[in-house]
Design brief:
single chain; mainly alpha; about 90% helix; rod-shaped
Length: about 60
């Protein structure tokens, strides 16, 4: 039962698919984290620029 060649190839195929899916999920999480970090940097830079512009216009 466990000696059939089909058993091993199916297990390897499932293992390869599982690794691929796991890698995609890991990269997706990393991409979302980088997107969030970039958005926060952009908002912070915009807020500082807006505050500097407002301060200069008041002087």
């Amino acid at each position: 039962m466990h000696d059939s060649p089909g058993h091993y190839s199916t297990g390897r195929a499932r293992s390869a698919v599982h690794r691929l899916v796991r890698g995609i999920r890991r990269r997706r999480r990393a991409a979302i984290g980088l997107l969030l970090r970039g958005a926060c940097y952009g908002l912070g830079a915009g807020a500082v620029s807006g505050a500097a512009y407002w301060l200069q216009s008041r002087m």
